Amino acid sequence: MRNDGRLSRMLHVLIHMAQHDGPMTSEAIARMLGTNPVLIRRTMAGLRNAGYVRSEKGHGGGWAIATDLETVTLLDVHHAVGGPHLFAIGIEHPEPGCQVAAVVNEAVSDALQEAERLLVERLASISLATLVQTFDERRGSVSV
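^ Putative HTH-type transcriptional regulator YwnA, sequence as received from the core. Prediction below:
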């Protein structure tokens, strides 16, 4: 099963945008990610609808950050890009009345709910500004 990379890819784009002077075109973003500009526009539309980026048309146009990066979390971006369920693991719904299935489903369901709660909590605790700051610190410590 292929992983859904929308969250990490859009976080990558947003950090580049935060470091970039002026708007970035869909074509430039697509080249950076090795994908199609149409796919970029479709995904960025979710970020625009959430108010995190804006699009500017015409010469010199493109996508630009439209919000304070302190106020946007990784969970916010996950929701804005239409991120899938956090886990692909699920439970089976076999014959009603099967006690084995009931015990198994209860254990798996409880574990998944706890794991999702922890992941959501963690994603909600990290702002885009934190990622940009971490990037800047690491970039500053790299010797050229």
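The first strand starts at residue 53 and ends at 56.
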